[in-house]
């Protein structure tokens, strides 16, 4: 109904300008009007804009439909060339717009159709290696000594170097330990083997025969 009133008002204005002789020619299609408001408060939606047509005020009834008919413009042609639609820019306050699902996808600390509601940021254990402190529309992580970052997920450079050095030292100690075991075992076998051979030799030696008198 509002659209009909706007068209009627515009056609009345055209009629007034026609009387003054400063209007466009009859059946001229004029420039685009401004865009309408989006039909969704957030997360997409669409809007439209229309063109106006200059009509003769003597055409009765003085309506858009009759004007289009008198100008030999079909309803389909008018909707194709006189009306334009487009998607509104997504407005997800604290998230991203999912074009497949046609709705906002909120980050974990927010909810709501427009991701406008603040959740308890500490509810979801967002701090991987630290203590979480909830704040308005945000959260803060007090990280353990070795970690840093928004969610305490990044190890500090000096901590990485320290852990790397400790791992290298452990690897070297393991190698030395294995080397010592191998060397000691080899020397021990070399010591035991001759003793075993001498014992076998004693057992296999025949006793000397006693002389007969």
Automatic annotation (TrEMBL):
TM region(s), chain numbering: 157-181
S-S bridge residues: 122-132, 143-152
UniProt domain EGF-like: residue ranges: 118-153
UniProt keyword annotation of Disulfide bond present: yes
MF terms in GO: calcium ion binding
Signal peptide: 1-25
Gene3D superfamilies, alphabetized: Laminin (2.10.25.10), Thrombospondin type-1 (TSP1) repeat (2.20.100.10)
Coiled-coil segments: none
Name of the protein this chain belongs to: EGF-like domain-containing protein
